[in-house]
Amino acid sequence: MKKIRFAFALSSLAAVALVGCASHLSGNRATAKLEPTRGNTTSGTVTFVQTGDGVQVSGEVRGLKPDSEHGFHIHEKGDCSSGDGMSTGGHFNPTAKPHGPHGAGEHHTGDLPSLKADKYGVAAFSFVSRSVSVAGPTTDIVGKGLIVHRDPDDYKTQPTGNAGPRLACAVITASK
Ligand SMILES: [Cu+2]
Ligand SMILES: [Zn+2]
After folding, report:
1. 75 CA distance to ligand 1 middle (Å)
2. Long-range contacts of 43-51, Cβ-Cβ distance < 8 Å, separation of 24 or more
3. Which ligand ends up closest to the CA of 165?
């Protein structure tokens, strides 16, 4: 009798874990250290922290033009080796959606809010993304690329947002 009850308890635990969505991932963290691409001076650090409610994305990017706006995306490959950021491929899009604005309507998993630089050319930011996960299924950003573009994202042009060349590149890595 005891054994049966134990098995039942285990199976209901498994069901809770399946239904419990991202909550079992809570506390997972990743970081990205943005390095300038060839001929550029943009750099920065970004951290990703999984919560039950989404991923808190925060960081600071320096070396931008004063008072400028820049497309900011997670790209499909964690590979900055080409020197111009192109080796990261296109936007991370595991759910096969069109490019669009973060947090509204259809968009790539990797479409993030654009960076807004202040008069010193620094963009500091903190937002929650419900599109990505840190080590979750399908939308895991660990091992993907992170790109800062020269131009603003128009959130319309497919599949890039027409954000121009890539100023800085990083590989997103798991952290403690
Ligand atoms: Cu991009
Ligand atoms: Zn996109």
Report:
1. 6
2. 43/168, 44/123, 44/148, 44/168, 46/146, 46/170, 47/175, 48/132, 48/134, 48/141, 48/172, 49/134, 50/22, 50/25, 50/26, 50/133, 50/134, 50/135, 50/136, 51/22, 51/26, 51/128
3. 1
